[in-house]
Specification:
Elements (H helix, E strand, L loop, with lengths): L1 E5 L3 H13 L3 E5 L2 H10 L4 E5 L7 H10 L6 E6 L3 H9 L4 E5 L3 H15 L7 E3 L2 E4 L4 E4 L2 E3 L3 H12 L7 H8 L10 H13 L5 E3 L3 E3 L8
Helix pairs in contact: 2-3, 6-8
Bound molecules: calcium ion.
Main location: cytoplasm
Organism: mine drainage metagenome
GO molecular function, one term: phosphorelay response regulator activity
Length: 223
């Protein structure tokens, strides 16, 4: 798989290139927006990793140019933590996914594989409920298309409840899903995770049946 990396930070670019190579990708590294554009005009790529803050031509401009040519090439953008407006502009300009710097190389690689799978038409088994989408492969949860950060246990709990919509599960059943063998269960942990999930995803998503357990009711708007 050939990847175009457009990144002007020498240290970061070098690290990403080395990591992607090790993961089996062939990497072309362009260090400014113009060089990225030239590469796209002359070479064929499976996916692009695109920094937004670039000399000569910004990542957003490059992305607009690419989408203006009706290219459906998957694009993952890299953004700075404090540049929320850039991220929004990038997504609006047609980016498929994004990572906030600093990020983990393993996460970048997992996201690229997910993008490649999607662009190859192999749909991932997304779990959908109202405006919430959970991707078991990439471990991402989105609400109205926006990524929601969940802890590993919050994710597992939500996954479990979404897999068994309309089925009430007891706290003990859920604890078994959340904790591995020999792991100590924190007291009230299910209650705490449910509380966090409600705060992040909506107060009425998970229903408590006092003394019985928890359930996500069937999404009536979907049928
Ligand atoms: Ca940059």
């Amino acid at each position: 798989m050939r990847v175009l990396l457009v990144e002007d930070d020498a240290l970061l670019g070098d690290g990403i290139r080395a990591g992607l190579k090790q993961a089996g990708f062939a990497v072309d590294w362009a260090q400014d927006g113009q060089a990225g554009k030239l590469a796209l005009e002359t070479e064929e790529y499976a996916v692009i990793v695109l920094d937004l803050g670039l000399p000569k031509l910004s990542g957003t401009e490059l992305l607009k140019w690419l989408r203006g040519r009706a290219s459906a090439l998957p694009v993952l953008i890299l953004t700075a933590r404090d540049k929320v407006s850039d991220r929004v502009a990038g997504l609006n300009a047609g980016a498929d996914d994004y990572l906030v710097k600093p990020f983990d190389l393993d996460e970048l690689i997992a996201r690229l594989h997910a993008l490649l799978r999607r662009s190859a038409g192999q749909t991932t088994p997304l779990l959908l409920h109202g405006d919430i989408a959970l991707d078991p492969v990439t471990h991402q949860v989105r609400k109205s298309g926006k990524m929601v950060e969940l802890s590993a246990r919050e994710f597992t709990l939500l996954h479990e409840l979404l897999l068994h919509v309309d089925r009430v599960q007891s706290r003990e059943q859920l604890e078994q899903r959340l904790y591995g063998w020999g792991e100590e269960v924190e007291s009230n942990s299910v209650e705490v995770h449910v509380h966090h999930l409600r705060k992040k995803l909506g107060a009425d998503l998970i229903r408590t049946l006092r003394g019985v357990g928890y359930v996500i009711d069937k999404d009536v708007s979907a049928s």
